[in-house]
Design goal:
This protein is mainly β. It has 7 domains: about 25 residues; about 110 residues, Sandwich (Immunoglobulin-like); about 100 residues, Immunoglobulin-like; about 100 residues, Immunoglobulin-like; about 80 residues, Sandwich (Immunoglobulin-like); about 150 residues, Sandwich (Chondroitinase Ac, Chain A, domain 3); about 60 residues. It is about 10% helix and about 50% strand. The strands form 11 sheets. It has a 7-stranded antiparallel beta sheet, with no helix packed on it. A 5-stranded mixed beta sheet has the order 3-9-8-5-6, with no helix packed on it. β22 and β23 form a beta hairpin. α3 packs antiparallel against α4.
Length: about 675
Amino acid sequence: MKKSTISGLLFVILVLFGAYFVSATFLYVPGLGANFTVSNISEAGIGAFTAGENLSGTIAINASFVVNGTHNNHLTNVTYQWNQSQLIILNTTVRNTSRNQSDFINTSFDTTLLPDGLYNITILVINFSNSKNTTTIEGITIDNSNPKVGNLTYNLTPTSTAEVRYSISTSTLMFNVTAHDNLTNLTSVLFEFDNASYTPFNVTATLKVKNNWSAAYNVSTLRGGYHTVKVIARDFAGNVNQTINTSFFVNTPPNVTIINSTSGLNFSATEAKRNHTFNVSVTNRTTKGNISSIVFQFNNASGTDFNRTVFRSNKTAYGRFFLLSYNISSLDEGAHTVTIFANDTLANVNKSVSFSFTVDRTAPLISVSCLPDSPSEGVDVECTCTATDTGDSGIKIAALFGHGTATESFKASGTSEVSSSVCSSTDYAGNKGTGSGSFTPTAASGGSGGSSGGSGGGISRAAAGNFKKTTWNSINAGEIATVEPDNGVIGVSKVSFGLKEKKWGVWMKVAKKDSIPSEFKPFGNKAHKIIEITKSLSIKEGDFVSPTIDIKVEKSWVNDNNLGRNDVALHRYHDSVWNQLETEFVKDDGTYLHYSAKTPGFSYFIIGTKDQVSGKTAEEVAEAAAEAMALEEASEEAPGRDMGADGDELVGAESNLTRNIVIVLAVLIVIAVAAFLMKRRK
């Protein structure tokens, strides 16, 4: 080969090499050396950087790269630029640690190196040939400041350093606090209750208005003792402020203990006249709030409640004894419940403790039936004894004859009345009832001295002109029971009623009274008769079905007071007021006017005038005049008239004239009165 040819080839090679060197070293154009795709940039525990990200504390940044080129094994470093308003605040560079490295993981970065604020992050990747690729993520917030918390308030916030106390009756408290963050919003605000160092719990607050958070809580659910409430405010960067707290005290109701329990006891007529002592111990659980007195509330056999206040009997600090001595003779018969009200000075009330007892002054009702009640000579007769407790204590000793059995037998003989042995029974209050039966061995007459159950088998007792009392062993549901006084002196002719369900040991008493009790309000109308109707405790006001009272009023009283038959009504005293009952006129028997009235219950009654009196009708005036004329004519025709010597009646023209004048005048008076009354009504 020619030397010139070889020289030319060498020159070409040198030129090509030089061109490559120049292009690689001096003529670099970004992107020609390698194309980088940047991906998987993330911060540990938060995830990939995204616009609006909030960062705080030390973070671990992970980045991996996919390189489109031939020089990926020459990546030299990755730089994180933190920019604010196009100014680079801080560069963090991570260099290659191995020849073929494309992942830069667990790069620790302390965000406190940056001032709090909003940043854009530019990620710059450079290879060995100085080729570059950049990626920018905008809107990253660096926030290393805790939320601002202050002005913690709640109901009745103390104005001094004095201890704040609440009772369970304080109920709901409203807790308020101001909390905000300068850079990010708050994720939550919590009120942490330590529950008097028992089991703590959190209550989430609600944002009411700007920066104001509130939560309501009912302190009645808290344990007694000192409570601390701490505010926990957390922002979106994970910063927490829990430096604000407050304390208060919750006092709980006192403990009440019955020392000498009266519960379940029964008091008889004799025992009910004595004083009985009720002893109660009260201890304040949380030793806060003074207890100087308690209240015994008697329900008075579900009648009218009343209270007795008792002051403590010793001066110990928080354990106290309270003694009540009370004469129960004033209590109604029946089952009684006494509830203890213990209050402290913080308005805590314990009213859950009570005890019960029974006041029973009525002996069991004894019934002895002898059958057959009219035996013939030589017939066997068996007498059976039963007892019904008309009080509320119950039968303790069953009805037995003196020889210890509930039955005894006889052989009918003679014609004289035969009486059984005395039968007796005792209730749990110690009241003892006795009774006996009888029979008369005769075919023509006779009857049992005993009684049978049911409303038709009532036993009646009466005192003429005073009262009528009827007792039933039992009254079935749907039966109609009646009490019928024997005369018109009481003013009641019949009381009738039914019951919603079967009742045992029922009695009712209708009594004439001379006056109403002094504590009653006066009766404002004209009163004719005062009546009291009482009943056994085994029936309550709500047990009755259609209770009705039939009354009768002397016509002479109505006429003397210039009343019409429709001016009469029955009045009942109830709820401290005289209540006029709906009273219906039934009939006029010539001596009495009869009426019937429905009543919702039984108590004191007055037969008197209505609240509004209209007076006699024209028809009643005419009837009264006619009755007066009839009486006058009858008196003239009565024995003792003048007789002649021959026995003939002497009837002169003068006597006839006088009688005719009287009749004419009477008729004219009737017509005049009737006309006057009719004109007044118009």
